[in-house]
Amino acid sequence: MRTFQINTLALVLAFMASSVVAQGSVPVIPAEAQVGKGKLLHPWQAAQSGQGGDAYFVNLGNGDKIETPFLVKFGLSGGWGLAPISKASSGKSGHHHLLVNRDLPLDFKQALPFTEQYIHFGKGQMETVLNLAPGDYTLRLLLADQMHLPHFVYSKPLKITVTKKNSLDHASLSKKGINLNVVGDELKRPFRVQFHASGLSVAHLAQQEAGTGHFRLSIAPKSGAKPVEMDFVNGQTEAWLEPPVGDYVLKLDFVDNVNPGQILARAEPRSVRVN
After folding, report:
1. Which DSSP state fits 173?
2. Reported confidence tier of residue 48, pLDDT bands at 50, 70, 90
C-alpha cells in the first residue's frame, strides 16, 4: 500500500512539472508532436503552441516616416507558407495581399477585389516597392488562398507617413537573392530565424511550379558533428529553433521546386552561439 502511494505521488509530481514547463514564457510543442498531416517537427525545431499565424512587415514599423520608392518586405509566422495561385495547394498556405487605407473585409467568404487598394502577390512574392505620393497611409497585410478568399492571418494596421517621393529606378532597390535574418550572435533557445527572398517566388515543393523554390536551412555544429538540414517544403518563411547549447554556422539555400538538386540562391552564412 505504501509503495502504491509513493508511485502515485511521483506520477502527480511529474504531471505538475510537465504542466509548469508547458506554461513557460515560450511554450513549445514536443519534437515528436505531429504538425499538419502526419508531418513531424525536427527535434531541433520548436513550435509555439496555442498561437495562430500572422502576416507582418519585416522592415516597417508603426509611425515610420519614409521616402518612396521604398522596398517593403513581408513575413509570415505560425507555420504558414506561401503558395502561388497558379496551382492548388493544401494545408496552411496562401499568398500576401497589401491593403492600402482599407480595413479588413467584413466578409471573409468573399474574394478580395483587384484594385490599387488591394494589391495581390499571387506569385509567392515576399516584397514590393511602395511608390506612394507624400501623405499619411494605413497599411495592412492579409493572407488569402488561390481563390483570393482571406484566411484569418493578417497584420496589425500600420500607420506610416511618406515625406517625399524621389525619382529612383525600382530595379535598384531589389537584387535577386535571399537573406537569413537572426537577431544577434548570442541566442537563447528557442530563437527565431527568418528567411527572405528578393526577386524570387516561394512555393510548395508539391506544386512543382517552374521558376519557384523553397528554403532549406543547414545547421552545422562547429564541433565537427554532422550538419542538420531542414527543408521547408510547404513555403514557410521562418522557423523557431532549439538546438543543443553550442556554436553553429547557419546556412540558407533557396532550392528549385522542379529540380530539387538545383540551388537558385544562397545566403551569407551566419555564425551563432546558442545558450
Report:
1. G
2. low
User: How large is the C-alpha radius of gyration of the chain?
Assistant: 21
Second CATH level (architecture) for the domain 55-170:
Sandwich (2.60)
Q: Which triple of cell numbers denotes residue 224?
A: 565537427
Cβ contact 140:158 at 8 Å: yes
DSSP string, 201-262: EE--GGG--TTEEEEEEEEEETTSPPPEEEEETT-B-EEEE-PPSEEEEEEEEEEESSSTT-
Lowest mean pLDDT among 43-47, 81-85, 117-121, 209-213: 43-47
Closest CA to 35 of 48, 22, 25: 48
Domain boundaries, the chain: 55-170, 177-274
Is residue 243 reached through a cis peptide bond, with omega within 30 degrees of 0 on the bond before it?
A: no
Cis peptide before 190 (omega within 30 of 0): yes
Q: In CATH, which superfamily holds the domain spanning 177-274?
A: Immunoglobulins (2.60.40.10)
| CA distances to 65, 139, 164, 170, 251 from 161, in Å | 5, 11, 9, 20, 36
Q: What angle do CA 111, 127, 208 make, to 5 degrees?
A: 70
pTM comes to: 0.84
Cell match 527543408: residue?
231
Residue pair 100/157 in contact (Cβ under 8 Å)? The answer is no
